[in-house]
Automatic annotation (TrEMBL):
This is FlgO domain-containing protein. Residues 64-182 form the FlgO domain. It comes from Solidesulfovibrio magneticus (strain ATCC 700980 / DSM 13731 / RS-1). Pfam families: FlgO.
Amino acid sequence: MRLTRLTSLLPLLLAALLSPLLMGALCGSGKNPPPPQYPDVAMAMAADLDRQLGPRLGMGTPTNSRGLYWLVITTPADLNNLERASPLSRLFGQELYAAFVGLGYNVQEIRKASDIIFSRSQGEFVLTRDTKALATTRATATLVLAGTYSVTPGGVRFNLEVIDARNNNIIAASSRTLPMDATVGAMAGLSPTAFVAPTVSTTDPATFEREMQPYMSRHW
């Protein structure tokens, strides 16, 4: 009888022993996930813009699919100096290029700053070339992706817009922040010393004597 009773309790004992392991597997190791890198942020923004473009342009049919649109991708410009681009923004533009090609768009990339001007009075990007001239008989319309980035202590904020070249309307917009670290800061053009903490702290002699006097009186 005792053996039968122990056998009946065996599932409960196993559950008690395994429950911490199961909870650990469900909850993870407790460590925070690694921060996203610039390819992750670029792909997330491309997916966000694509979700907005589909319903607004009526995509989803053989006669109106992504492959019928030309998307001109420009390099994000520094919000504080719109004629400037950093290595980070150029790499970000290339990641956007790859993401939208993967989504099925016909993509053209513009890297020359001379191809784009920024109208400060209207607060919008304008291509110096005629965007409508980029459309072909196979393309329904030309879309232009333009944006800016701004560097903050906590990260680099990207703001992107997709403009319909037929009417200059903004039909999709997305914003994301790339967390700051030494690599991101260097690619964004920040000085490497911005991420170097001092190894020795300094203080004035009076403060030193006041704070160290109790310690010295005990040991001397």
